[in-house]
Write a structure and sequence with these properties.
alpha/beta; binds beta-D-glucopyranose; single chain; 5-stranded mixed β-sheet; 14 helices
């Protein structure tokens, strides 16, 4: 059987897509989202600008509620602009393994902040989920992604809820700025970008989830009627929500079985929490066609999960844990087929990622001068760790941007969500 051809027919292959048409759809959806028209891209104004200079000295509390982990610490910038972290606590993101209440969630946050309470006034809260940001810099959760289950918090003001729980514990006078992790990544890249004279900034994340932030002129944000006509601000694209691409039957099946059917379907094609499961759906379809060994077909048909890490370790042949994929029911030929399928899933994810970044560069209007590239801070373990993904993304990006005469420089900043949240916490309430 021609597996590559079959994967293309099922739309789990880069070869099934036209990158230029996808970029055009992305730009169309971005424009509609900014105007307040119906769009799969939320295009959320962050009410922060990228040319923020941050004052050293004062410590700020940072909460980093990511897809996998929740981290709380105290951050301050030392004189050479480097960030020092202390009072660090880290645990699995609450609500990931089981459904919890809003009170449980806030108590975990308050437990982490309470011992640090005498040392900070402001809290930079990096919240890696879609939230409308309000002019007072609080965030209202639109919906959960990445399979998190804290339904009570949907529609609630995340920062105000936290301050309320702190006050119940006698901790008052604190202020909180809620920002998306891509906005934090963008801010965290500005120090490096300034050094090479960047013409604009992008924060892109491909980890458990995916998303992009870029800088937009206020005059283009039609939905902020009456908002500033001059100046710029960061926009959280919520690019994982993009729907204007053709999905295949496996995408549809995976979406239907997820916690949030119909939502964030682009994310379900490319991010860390979904690439393994998507591969499994494709492998099970092949098992129905009896493409594997008899025992392999049987084993695949009863599997109900495949972690991206296991299939990625198999593809990379790196000697790390491959879970059940390593057991004797699968032959080496079975494993080769698994690698082919996963590589096709990754190949499509790489094309989609490049399209996403390229569209944001085009929309920024910057990067036309090679001496002033757009600074793209890329964060997320899926981007850096998935076998072959980053190289493929860069290859596609190179071609897509060259054809448009645009220039970028990609960077990676250690602990970007924490650094960006600290910058926001330090600067957001300054006059
Ligand atoms: C969320 C985004 C977030 C991204 C990366 C997505 O699931 O909707 O808000 O930026 O993951 O963490």
């Amino acid at each position: 059987m021609d597996i590559q051809g079959w994967l293309k027919e099922q739309m789990v292959s880069a070869a099934a897509y036209d990158a230029d048409a996808l970029i055009a759809s992305f730009l169309d959806q971005m424009g509609k989202g900014l105007a307040g028209d119906a769009s799969s891209l939320a295009m959320i104004p962050a009410y922060v600008d990228a040319d923020t200079r941050f004052p050293g000295g004062k410590p700020v509390a940072v909460i980093d509620a990511g897809g996998t982990n929740l981290r709380i610490c105290l951050a301050h910038f030392n004189e050479d602009g480097r960030i020092d972290l202390s009072g660090f606590s880290k645990q699995a993101m609450p609500g990931r393994d089981r459904e919890i209440t809003a009170a449980e969630f806030y108590n975990v946050l308050a437990d982490g902040l309470e011992p640090l309470a005498s040392e900070f006034e402001n809290i930079g809260f990096c919240f890696s989920y879609p939230a409308t940001i309000l002019p007072d810099l609080d965030g209202r959760l639109l919906h959960w992604t990445k399979e998190i289950k804290i339904p009570e918090l949907v529609g609630r003001h995340i920062g105000a809820g936290l301050l309320g729980v702190l006050e119940d514990r006698g901790i008052s006078g604190k202020r909180v700025v809620v920002l998306n992790d891509t906005v934090a990544a963008l801010l965290a890249g500005t120090a490096q970008g300034r050094v090479f004279n960047a013409s604009s900034y992008i924060g892109f994340i491909l980890g458990t989830g995916t998303n992009t932030a870029y800088v937009e002129r206020n005059e283009n944000i039609g939905k902020l009627d009456g908002y500033l006509e001059s100046g710029t601000q960061v926009i959280n694209v919520e690019s994982g929500g993009f729907t204007a691409f053709k999905r295949g039957p496996f995408d549809v099946q995976l979406d239907e079985e997820s916690e949030n059917p119909g939502a964030h379907v682009f994310e379900k094609a490319i991010s860390g929490v979904y690439m393994g499961p998507l591969t499994l759906v494709a492998l099970q379809a092949l098992a129905q066609k009896e493409l594997f060994s008899t025992s392999g077909n049987a084993a695949l048909s009863v599997m109900n999960d495949l972690s991206t890490i296991h299939i990625d370790n198999l593809a990379a042949d790196n000697g790390r844990d491959v879970g059940v994929l390593g057991i004797g029911v699968f032959t080496d030929a079975d494993r080769e087929t698994m690698k082919t399928v996963f590589s096709s899933v990754v190949g499509r994810a790489a094309l989609f990622t490049a399209v996403n970044i390229a569209a944001s560069v085009v929309k920024s209007g910057a990067g036309t001068d090679p001496d002033r590239p757009v600074c793209v801070n890329i964060d997320g373990s899926t981007y850096y760790k998935t076998n072959g993904l980053a190289d493929k993304v860069q290859e596609h990006l190179g071609a897509l941007l060259e054809a448009r005469g645009l220039h970028i420089r990609c960077i990676h900043v250690e602990d970007a969500p924490v650094a960006g949240a600290a910058i926001a916490g330090l600067t957001a309430f300054s006059p």
